[in-house]
Amino acid sequence: MADISGLLSMCRKAGRLVLGMDEVKSSCLRHEARCVLTASDFSDNSLREIERICLRTKIKMIDLPDTMDGIAAAVGKRCGVMSVTDKGFAEAIAKKLSSKQNNL
Question: pTM of the predicted model, to two decimals?
Answer without folding.
Answer: 0.90
